[in-house]
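User: quick one, fold this
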Amino acid sequence: MMKQHLLSRIESRMPSFSKGQKLIAGYIEEHYDKAAFMTASKLGATVGVSESTVVRFATEVGYDGYPELQKAMQEMIRSKLTSVQRMEVTSNRIGDADVLNSVLNQDIDKIRRTMEEISHEEFYNAVDSIVNARKIYILATRSSAAIGSFLGYYFNLIFERVAVVSATSETEIYEQLMRIGEEDVVIGISFPRYSKMAVKAMGFASDSGATVIALTDSLMSPLVPPSNHVLLARSDMASVVDSLVAPLSVVNALIVATALRKKEEITSTFDRLEQIWEQYEVYEKVEENIVE
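Assistant:
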């Protein structure tokens, strides 16, 4: 069970760590997917401490040595944390701090790290594929379904053929994807803990010749192998809730980029929509109070 509680152990011991150990702890918390495949020497050089400090850190958090700590990080990438373990880590992380400020600051940090790590080339290649697609399929399950629904709403205003795939059962997913082909695009969205249905459906889409775009958190994600384009956005697998602030920002960027690419075509569409919304009073009118 020890390896499943790595982040919790780090958080609980953080006050007693030396300056060098805190540097190691911070790097593992933010970049566990990279640290998991570094040697002790490489990890030490990356954070600016000696190899021996890294080895002592491993024993400090309860492991027999660095290889066991490394194995724990690799296992964390594969299995992530259960809901109970997430609660424990979150409690240790926030402690007596203000919850609102703590969560908002953590989300700000995730957007910053996403800006540093996402590939601009991959992003614009994905935009090209979306704009030129015959039909766009959006596949997002569990908590990611909210992002899929948001993306589908706006894409339906921009494009003529968009399908938000319902993931109520595996059979229904394949039924909705059965006509997919080489001219189509599938946007798959999933974050830890990854949905098996989403992974298998993206494999099906890839085998059918469609262009597959993954929005996920790491190159270690199971959504990566079947994908043509990968958009990385940081989530927080150690939080009680799935932090999807950074993924939503990437989705916003996709919407804006595709809308600008089709600006001339969709201008008339939005003009027509404004007329409909006005005619059927879709939106509540808010009168401004003029103070004389």
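User: anything notable?
Assistant: Residues 217 and 232 are 5 Å apart (CA to CA).
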